[in-house]
């Protein structure tokens, strides 16, 4: 059973790598198509999202490799600095991580790993999951918003455009589920996420709250380009909240500031617990604001741009925003009320020590704090 589970996870990682390449590749091809057809602005924006996300992801990937080389206490050979610089300058650092992880896990399927090696591989998986989260909200989600705007406002459609949007959507869904699985399997105080209904409910909660967000922002962009400064203001609020919460994710102050800026981008589209604390009130405030904004988009568009009511997309989008917001909030309520329990597994005897006062069992502080412990929580 364990071998089957490990093999399934290896296949999931392989599919994740394929989806990543497909998402990036389709966006690059789409930007080339736009350029050839004379849509220089669209080409530039499409490529900009790819480059900004890639540079950000490569920066964090390089920094984490360097940190791991310094702190490594395993028998895993450290990666030479020149090699690290080269692959990240070529923007293939995350590809190298995928290939490295797939190779190690494939070997593990044919042999037994030590506890140390398993912990190391779990760290590699967690790093990949976090980097994919960065890439998802810096590239896939904005890309989906941009392409939706181009289709609705300019009535420009192409097969490659649909492929790019489909790959972005798959990437959002895949990285969301993969991140939740990695988070729950990496933290000591939670059991690994079951593969049944909890996964589906969490996925539906995220998809049905992110999608109307994308559509409402698209409608605001159709209404006026002044939406861009408004989005920047929302980003600033989210980034400021990350500064107020004093996140401590990175070992470098500059990287920490970049991380907080990325958190601000993520909070434009969905909510995450940025400090691992009880955030019932912030989450409630966030979704009240988000739903209000989502519903106001079609209303303002109808009032300030009445001709939009005659388009073939106006009514379907209004209905979908209403439906998606409602369903998304229902899944959110179900997940956090029924499935978001932190279950503490029994403490293994090997991890118990005698209490000096009353002789009772006491848990050793055996969990090593990793960067994953300080990342976005669900």
UniProtKB/TrEMBL annotation:
Keywords: Cell membrane, Membrane, Transmembrane, Transmembrane helix. The keyword Transcription regulation does not apply. It is a multi-pass membrane protein. The chain crosses the membrane at residues 12-35, 41-65, 77-99, 214-237, 257-274, 286-304, 316-336. Its main location: membrane. The keyword Membrane applies. It comes from the Eukaryota. PANTHER family: XK-RELATED PROTEIN (PTHR16024), XK-RELATED PROTEIN 9 (PTHR16024:SF13). This is XK-related protein. It comes from Danio rerio. The lineage of its organism: Eukaryota, Metazoa, Chordata, Craniata, Vertebrata.
């Amino acid at each position: 059973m364990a071998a089957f589970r490990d093999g399934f996870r290896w296949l999931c990682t392989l599919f994740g790598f394929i989806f990543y390449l497909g998402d990036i590749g389709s966006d690059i091809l789409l930007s080339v198509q736009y350029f050839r057809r004379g849509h220089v602005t669209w080409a530039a924006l499409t490529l900009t999202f790819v480059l900004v996300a890639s540079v950000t992801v490569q920066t964090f990937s390089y920094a984490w490799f360097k940190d791991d080389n310094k702190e490594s206490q395993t028998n895993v050979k450290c990666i030479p600095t020149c090699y690290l610089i080269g692959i990240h300058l070529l923007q293939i650092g995350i590809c190298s991580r995928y290939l490295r992880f797939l190779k190690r896990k494939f070997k593990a399927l044919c042999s037994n790993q030590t506890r140390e090696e398993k912990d190391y591989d779990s760290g590699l998986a967690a790093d990949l999951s976090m980097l994919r989260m960065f890439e998802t909200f810096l590239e896939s989600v904005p890309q989906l918003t941009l392409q939706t705007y181009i289709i609705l406002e300019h009535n420009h459609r192409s097969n490659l455009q649909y492929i790019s949007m489909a790959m972005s959507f798959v990437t959002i869904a895949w990285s969301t589920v993969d991140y939740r699985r990695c988070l729950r399997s990496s933290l000591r105080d939670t059991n690994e996420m079951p593969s049944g209904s909890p996964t589906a409910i969490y996925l539906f909660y995220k998809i049905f709250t992110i999608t109307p967000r994308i559509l409402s922002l698209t409608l605001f962009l159709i209404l006026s380009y002044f939406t861009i400064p408004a989005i920047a203001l929302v980003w600033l609020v989210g980034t400021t909240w990350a500064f107020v919460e004093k996140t401590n994710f990175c070992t470098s102050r500059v990287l920490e500031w970049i991380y907080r800026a990325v958190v601000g981008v993520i909070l434009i589209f969905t909510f995450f617990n940025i400090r691992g604390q009880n955030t019932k009130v912030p989450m409630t405030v966030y979704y009240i604001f988000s739903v209000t904004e989502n519903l106001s988009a079609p209303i303002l568009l109808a009032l300030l741009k009445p001709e939009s009511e005659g388009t073939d997309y106006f009514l379907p989008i209004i209905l979908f925003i209403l439906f998606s917001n409602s369903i998304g909030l229902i899944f959110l309520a179900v997940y956090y009320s029924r499935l978001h329990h932190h279950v503490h597994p029994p403490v293994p005897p090997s991890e118990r020590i005698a209490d000096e006062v009353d002789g009772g069992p006491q848990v050793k502080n055996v969990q090593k704090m990793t960067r994953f412990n300080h990342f976005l929580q669900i």
